[in-house]
Amino acid sequence: MGPLKDLLAKNKEWADKIKNDDPAFFTKLSKQQHPEYLWIGCSDSRVPANQIVGLLPGEIFVHRNIANMVVHTDLNCLSVMQFAVEVLKVRHIIVCGHYGCGGIKAALERKENGLIDNWLRHIKDVYRFHQAALDTEKDRLKRCDLLCELNIIEQVANVCHTTIVQNAWKNGQSLAIHGWVYSIEDGVLKDLEVTATGSSDISKIHRFK
Hints:
Elements lengths: L1 H20 L3 H7 L5 E6 L6 H4 L7 E6 L9 H13 L4 E7 L3 H7 L7 H14 L1 H6 L3 H22 L1 H8 L5 E7 L6 E3 L18
Parallel strand pairs: 1-2, 1-3, 3-4
Antiparallel strand pairs: 4-5
């Protein structure tokens, strides 16, 4: 119970500090959330969305899973996206991975890990799509970092291919999809420059009429 009591004490310190800075903060926050951003990130505890972009609670809507995946059969992720786009009317969806991702490392290994292997298959598919470039990189760490980036790029595409995003674009909603990667070693984000803002930014086979 000791560690849990410590967490509760830290929570009270945090809440008191927020209220000292802005006495009405939690009152305003409890009434409505108006985030402009949906963050799709990795579950890794070292990559907290709010802190690394300097935003307060209520300013960013967050979905996290192992290796920041957007799988078209994942109703959890799709439900978050639909709520963010259609109800909250976010203007930006950021897919953010990070270098040194454990999910990426596990996908590169040829060993059994249990249930998670079914999830890692999606990352192995990304490897298969880009096998020539990845096999050329002989340095193990650099190959892992490259797969981190390629996985983010693929997930950005997966976001764009959803009916949620394409219907938003069709209806004239301002919505941009971005791919970023975070370095745990220095705390800096890198824009992979794969931003999409409309159906013209995706392949024809994935566009709806």
